[in-house]
């Protein structure tokens, strides 16, 4: 007996369609963070590269949490492609400013998802997004602080690297227990 074909075109709610799109946004963010990490790594800025490699993995995990939610709710996980990735920069401030813009954009996307879930009376979807809403507060705050430190460092990359090593240890944080992922996660 064949399982029914589930595609985004066949009766998905607006919330589920947007969540499928968000999977692509999260994978794009993961790739963008990887590009930032590689830029820092290529310049022997190991502390900054560590922060962004970790961010890349976290964004990938966010995408896989969404995929797991879709699968668990019998929505075909038609994974979208990723968007454009910027790879050319002239100085570290540009990279951190891009990361902050990206986090603010993702925050807007998650807020839209929560609004649509509420409008559609999808209480399970709304509840699912609560973790992401809390996570985005932390992500924006972290990138805002890092941008402030880079700007105050005024090009002294040694001091910035020292601050990152001291104040941003490689510890998995977040707003509490995360959702399950589709496949393994970093935590």
UniProtKB/TrEMBL annotation:
Superkingdom in the source lineage: Bacteria
Listed InterPro entries: Ferritin, Ferritin-like, Ferritin-like_diiron, Ferritin-like_SF, Ferritin_DPS_dom, Ferritin_prok
CDD domains xrefs: Nonheme_Ferritin
Alphabetical keyword list: Iron, Iron storage, Metal-binding, Oxidoreductase
Entry keyword annotation includes Metal-binding: yes
Listed Pfam families: Ferritin
Residue span(s) of domain Ferritin-like diiron: 9-154
Gene3D superfamilies for this protein: 1.20.1260.10
Protein's name according to its UniProt entry: Ferritin
Organism in which the protein naturally occurs: Nocardiopsis mangrovi
